[in-house]
Amino acid sequence: MKKFAPLLIIGLWITLFSVAYHYHLTNLSIEEWKTLLKHTSVNIPILFVLVFCLRIILFIPSSVLIVVGSFLFSPIEGICLSLIGMFLTETFIYAISRTVFQNKVNQFIHKKYPSLYEKILNNRSRYLFGAVATPLAPADAACFAAASTKMPYFHYITVVLLGNIPIAILYTFYGNLLISSTWVTLALSILCILVTGILFVLRKNKKQEEVKKIISP
């Protein structure tokens, strides 16, 4: 039964995504999410956390939902609800990675990049915190990889939450700034994207050079 678990999970994900796509939930803008959550009959904080947990299926970046939360709630409430959503989401990712895909991920990385795999094992906390606390970084993928290396859950979730706190604060106040000063916020956003893009390219090139040194005989 265990060997069929990945197929069952993938099948369930495709089904849920198809339903979400049918009801146009996969391409909503920030304003549309705000309207949808604000005019629902369900308790808004509970619905917000539920949507946060489903964001992986819907391909919604956590940053988008944090900004939406800043429109709906006070800064403190928005940050707390976002962190609750992150806690539940990354716990789910940890469980799936450890119980279903752990061996496959480990075998792939260990076989492809054995030296790099050992380096990651020795610096799991640093790699995970860096990925989670960096805007626009693939945090969910980093969490999935970290969990597959048998990282203890308490250690894992502590690093994840510590890394997500500054991200939640950043995007919450970004949303508040967007409400009060739209043009200033857009200008700063473009500048931040450009700077982040440049830094990402430089960091990627540096990592590629490090990987080449590690895997080269």
Automatic annotation (TrEMBL):
Domain (VTT) spans: 60-176
Membrane-spanning residues where?
Answer: 44-72, 79-97, 153-174, 180-202
InterPro entries xrefs: TMEM64 (IPR015414), VTT_dom (IPR032816)
Chief location of this protein within or outside the cell = membrane
Q: Name one GO cellular component term.
A: plasma membrane
Keywords in UniProt for this one?
Cell membrane, Membrane, Transmembrane, Transmembrane helix
Pfam families assigned to the protein according to its UniProt record, in alphabetical order: VTT_dom
The membrane topology of this protein is: Multi-pass membrane protein
Compartments where located: Cell membrane
Q: Signal peptide span per the entry?
A: none
Query: What is stated as this protein's family in its record?
Result: Belongs to the TVP38/TMEM64 family.
Q: What is this protein called?
A: TVP38/TMEM64 family membrane protein
